[in-house]
TrEMBL record:
Keywords linked to the UniProt accession: Membrane, Transmembrane, Transmembrane helix
The organism of origin for this protein: Salix dunnii
Pfam families the UniProt entry points to: EXS (PF03124)
Region Disordered, residue ranges: 1-28
Keyword Transmembrane appears in the UniProt entry: yes
Domain EXS: start-end pairs: 250-452
Annotated localization: Membrane
Transmembrane segments: 86-106, 141-161, 173-193, 245-269, 290-309, 359-387
Membrane topology: Multi-pass membrane protein
Name listed for the protein in its UniProt record: EXS domain-containing protein
GO terms under cellular component: cytoplasm; membrane
Length: 455
């Protein structure tokens, strides 16, 4: 499944650690992992102890989360039954986006760890230098997020249940402000170059692989951005820890036009990238890819029309169109994942660079490889169909269901990353080998060419 290793470039400015952090070892003992090696398939299974934190740290971490859970549950039980559901819905709105982002950071760390154990040079694929953030730094960030976000949420529940409404309302506001300040903090701490590279990539429309890759991940987080917009809207209009926000027709309510606009933005950005790619390369594939992202637009806006048209019009006309556009988007996206992003339609299989293995060993490995491919394709198909539910504004009142589907979508994107990066690495390796063979042919022709001078 993985190719040969290539040493990453030394001078790329992307995603390098800040100079003040290269020697920072405060939390290096939190997460123990093996160094990148020349591990190839087949090999002995990688021990989970290589990535597990120390037992003492794990115990303390579990104790902290358990304590926060007990305080939060006790705070919820102190509320009246009529207020409890409404308040939990509001608290869930503020904190579920950050919890999902935390989950995505953990999964990205796992992606990097697997690549580090393999012979895929993800540093070369993303054009990173030798000081780029590894899975250890990514997990360090995720650890702090896993601690800070639940603490803020618990404080919010506790203060509100004990009558401190103003202090409770300030908790999500402080947390959102802190996250924003950390992202734009201009000093050389908190991985300065990584933060600025992320912000630059979000701002620009470029056609490098890293730009495409990040934009694809952002499409899986469209629901997160939509909830962030609603949360910030309520903070700006001072509706935190109140029941004013519950009016669906209010400026920050579930009928707001801002919801479908924020949902569609990641797809519009990705659409523009494809058009820019076609302009620069004249590849027709880019136009078909742009068409794929355009199919998400009617899914989002037809769903939002439920709150702005008559019920009969929605039932008889707009709802069938919404279902049809949702099925079209799901099937088209699934087809593109398998045939283009992963290139599985051509029969590409994992590469096993151990010819000394016995036939029985190779047979077992190939069988396991096929099982992995069947699982990934099947789960990707099912979750692509659930995509419509996540993008539909008129189904947002089922917030627990939408949260679950959004989390599953991130898991789908997590497994998508492995095959997408592997496919890109295969293309880069094939291109490098082709260039080397052409150079060798030219040198051979020069050696065999007849001499023009007499001896």
């Amino acid at each position: 499944m993985f190719g040969s290793q290539v040493i990453p470039p030394n001078k790329s400015p992307h995603l390098r650690k800040s100079d003040g952090e290269q020697g920072n070892t405060e939390m290096e003992g939190l997460l123990h992992s093996t160094e990148p090696s020349d591990l190839k398939i087949p090999s002995l299974p990688i021990s989970t102890a290589a990535i597990m934190p120390s037992p003492i740290l794990l115990w303390r971490f579990k104790r902290l989360l358990k304590m926060l859970n007990e305080i939060g549950w006790d705070s919820v039980m102190r509320m009246s039954v009529n207020l409890r559901d409404l308040f939990l819905y509001e608290a869930f709105l503020y904190y579920n986006p950050l919890l999902l982002v935390t989950m995505m950071v953990w999964l990205w760390g796992v992606n990097l760890w697997v690549f580090a154990q393999s012979t895929i040079s993800y540093a070369k694929i993303f054009d990173l230098d030798q000081n780029h953030l590894t899975h250890r730094e990514i997990w360090k960030v995720a650890t702090w997020m896993t601690i800070i976000v639940p603490i803020s949420m618990t404080a919010y529940l506790y203060l509100y249940s004990h009558g401190e409404v103003s202090l409770a309302a300030s908790q999500p506001v402080f947390l959102y402000c802190a996250v924003a300040l950390i992202l734009i903090f201009p000093f050389d701490i908190f991985y300065l170059s990584t933060r600025y590279y992320l912000l630059r990539t979000l701002w620009r429309i470029a056609i490098t692989f890293s730009d495409f890759f990040l934009a694809d991940i952002l499409t899986s987080m469209s629901k997160v951005f939509s909830d962030l917009e609603r949360s910030v809207c309520r903070m700006v209009h001072r509706q935190v820890a109140t029941i004013a926000w519950f009016e669906a027709d209010s400026v920050c309510g579930s009928h707001s036009i801002g919801i479908p606009i924020i949902l569609v933005l990641p797809y519009i950005f990705r659409l523009f990238q494809c058009l820019r790619q076609y302009k620069d390369t004249k590849e027709k594939t880019a136009l078909f890819n742009a068409l794929k992202y355009s199919t998400a637009v009617p899914v989002i806006f037809l769903s939002a029309l439920k709150y702005h048209v008559l019920p009969d019009s929605w039932t008889n006309f707009y709802r069938p169109l919404w279902l049809l556009s949702g099925i079209l988007n799901s099937l088209y996206s699934f087809y593109w994942d398998v045939t283009r992003d992963w290139d599985l339609s051509s029969g590409r299989q994992a590469k096993f660079p151990h010819p000394s293995r016995t036939v029985a060993d190779l047979a077992v490995i190939v069988l396991l490889s096929y099982r992995v491919y069947f699982w990934v394709i099947g789960s990707n198909f099912i979750l692509r169909l659930a995509w419509t539910y996540k993008l539909s504004a008129h189904l947002r009142h089922n917030y627990l269901t939408v949260f679950t589907i959004t989390a599953l979508e991130m898991i789908r994107r997590f497994q998508w990353v492995f095959f997408r990066v592997e496919n890109e690495w295969t293309k880069m390796s094939s291109k490098s080998n082709l260039q080397l063979s052409e150079i060798s042919s030219e040198e051979k022709d020069k050696l065999l060419a007849p001499s023009d001078h007499n001896v």
